[in-house]
Amino acid sequence: MEQAIYLVTLIGTALVLVAAFSSVIAFRFGAPLLLVFLLIGLAAGVDGLGLDFDNAPLAYFVGSLALAVILFDSGFRTSLTAFRQAALPAVSLATIGVVLTAGLVGLATYYLTDFTWLESFLLGATVASTDAAAVFFLLRAGNISIRERVRSTLEIESGSNDPIAIFLTLTLVSVLASGEAVKAEALAGEVLAGFLLQMGLGAAAGLAGGRLVVWLVGRFELDRGLLPIFVLALSLMVFGAAGAIGGSGFLAVYLAGLVAGNARLPAASGIMRFQDGMTWLAQIIMFLVLGLFATPSQFPVIVVDALLIGLFLIFIGRPLAVALCLVPFRYPRNETVFVSWVGLRGAVSILLALTPLIIGLENGRALFNTAFIIVLVSLMVQGWTVGTVARRLGLVLPPRMGPLEKIALDLPGARHQELLTYKVIEDSPVARGERIPRWARPSLVLRAGRALSFHDAGRLQPGDHVYIVVPDRYPPLLDRLFASRAEVDPADVDFFGQFAVDPERPAAELAAAYGVALSDEEAAMSIAELVMERVVGKAEYGDRIPLEPVELIVRDTDAEGRPTRLGVSLDPPEPSESFITLLSAGGLRDRLARLAGLKRREDLSSRAPARPPSPGAALSASEPAPASAEKAPGET
CA-to-CA distance for 581 and 584, rounded, in angstroms? Predict the structure, then answer.
């Protein structure tokens, strides 16, 4: 018995270490790291190194706990502003989109396989929801910089679309297990009623649990080492309590993290560092366990059908469901295509595919193996190409700042103050002599191993470490002083436009300069008001407003979302086609013709004389230099 404990510990820790070490290889070759974890589990399983793990209930339990840890951390890092902006489209995708996807995949499965109608729709339900772990990892750990609304839509959808998928799966599993014929109307009514009940209870438990976390953390002065463990335990308690009363534990734990993360908890930076490590560990364990449970030797029987279903889901099912759900929200086509492409399947789909095995359905193993292959296809095809697709669709934002080295430390007894440590980087504003604003309090400078007061240190030098106390509302303002200039990519000119325009000039001047067709009401507005009229919600950095034959580009905004800097593109890029359009012969032919025409224009322009100044040059505003120090509201 004692030797078995040592052996299990040795094997388990060895697998975790191999998975952690594999991140170096994965990042170098651009491979989706979660796919690597899954493949390591497969390699160590019964058809690889021979580890025989066939306990479906235990795998489901471990995976559910790991997913709860991941969802709490994702909610903790999501700002309420981003949540409010993307909540409606994300909820539409998490409910209607899941049902549509399950139905479309179910239809394809029925005609491609020997599964019955109910079994086909069961498979569709298991792979209908996107995976939070995969989406959060690819967007955050992958360092893909895209518009906040698109990022928030994907993250909120993946964090909240599990309840309806779980309902569909468990309801269909129970119907198949009972063997009774059920009318479609009765089944739809049961799913809808159960979904509303579980969503309502889960939301209530999550909001109440988040407030409880905030109250308890503020009430008791725990040791700094115990506080992150205390918060994690509370989050799992919210997950368990919500499930115990019949609610969605996954929705509850996500909302609890959202409430707690936006409450400015004391020692929040320490909590986030702890959760970062726990989230990595949860992802490694979850994917290793699910990989160990799979049996690759059984795949050849269903591999062709599973591949076809996976490709149908990626190129037809998911894009069609996303397009229908986002129609009311006026998402541009390129953003809609990207949202559909990042609908990765992962651990959630595999966890749900375990339920037919746990219940003991006749085709449970075949359903599990099919879902597993679909997940592999999704991670390989979509996960490996997310960055490339984002760039091809013109959604990657250029960096707003260059390199920045910063560490946030906790200040005991100063809830709304942060102690930040900056390393002075060459070519940053402070290294060039810019002053630190009065609302920031520099206290210490470390230079060549010596500790100096800020006043004794004199002008800051590259390599200095500066300790600054700052109100927790203003660190982003301070970041600009310690960041070096962002590298200028040639594509940035196209992204920001050839000219700058003054947002306060009349829109009628823009129409006269560039031949833009505006209504009488729009012509009476300022250019900034015109932009606010055309965008959805607040204006954001990187927004593009088509005004044929030109395009306005938001370069910066104020706190109210009003554009303060605008660019104009005289040659706006053509709208990006969806992948389905590109797959068609006509779409591909048209694309090749346009590319040939573009190449011809480039050849002619390289031999042509320089273009005369734009007729709208009078509208151009000289670009202001970065402010040496931005004042906090209320400062003089």
Answer: 5
